[in-house]
Specification:
This protein has 219 residues and is of the alpha+beta class. The protein contains six helices and five strands. It is 31% helix and 11% strand. Helix 3 crosses helix 6. About 5% of the residues have low confidence. Keywords: Iron, Metal-binding, Oxidoreductase.
Length: 219
């Protein structure tokens, strides 16, 4: 036996729609209803801190947000745009610079962590109009195409040569019981030591050739 449904009795679908709408409104602050932004204290910018360091041989002192990366300090505050922002996750190496002679991904480190540091960017490799030997070798060997990764490649290669001169071994070194010498720098060694720098154009063979050429003439 069935019973007639009163005309004013809501259907199941209408009931569920009403409940869903009420639940959604209950989770939204009152100030959001009608499109108004929520009330609250104003967001206060972080206080600036002074970072004093040397960049390409020139002393610099800048007041920056403490959250500023070294990359943004170089590009946005000092306008040294040779250092590139690629992945911004430390995976591509386009932002590589030298900090106290050692390579660093500038997108991953805060500027405030390097007081009195000596930072070298690609703009600081050349001596006036005289190209750094690696820069000249990259041009000669056609070691770049779009050029976006090239500044990081050059800084990383500069550190590579310094590491080899210091006798540092790598994962590709067959005999780690003796100091590494420049004469031991094979193509495999160069590839391993440059593996943190990606080239989306695929100019790797020419990059290796350029580094090998400079290493062959290094004292």
């Amino acid at each position: 036996m069935t019973h007639p449904v009163p005309a004013d009795d809501p259907s199941r679908r209408q009931f569920l729609q009403t409940v869903a709408t009420g639940t959604a409104l209950a989770t939204v602050p009152d100030s959001h209803v009608g499109g108004q932004p929520p009330a609250g204290p104003p967001v206060r910018a972080a206080d600036g801190v002074t970072v004093a360091l040397s960049v390409n041989g020139k002393p610099q002192a800048l007041s920056v947000d403490p959250r500023t990366t070294l990359l943004d300090l170089l590009r946005e505050h000092l306008h040294l745009t040779g250092t590139k922002k690629g992945c911004d996750h430390g995976q591509c190496g386009a932002c590589t610079v030298l900090v106290n002679g050692r390579r660093a991904n500038s997108c991953l480190t805060l500027a405030v962590l390097h007081p009195k540091a000596d930072v070298t960017t690609v703009e600081g490799l050349a001596k006036g109009d005289e190209l750094h030997p690696l820069q000249a070798a990259f041009v000669k060997n056609d070691a770049f195409q779009c050029g976006y990764c090239t500044p990081g490649q050059l800084c990383s290669a500069t550190a590579l040569l310094s590491e080899v001169k210091a006798g540092c071994v790598s994962h590709a070194t067959a005999d780690v019981s003796k100091p590494f010498a420049m004469a031991d720098l094979s193509d495999d060694e160069i590839r391993e030591r440059m593996s943190g720098n990606l080239c989306r154009c695929g100019a790797y063979p020419n990059i290796v050739a350029a580094i090998r050429e400079v290493a062959g003439g290094a004292k």
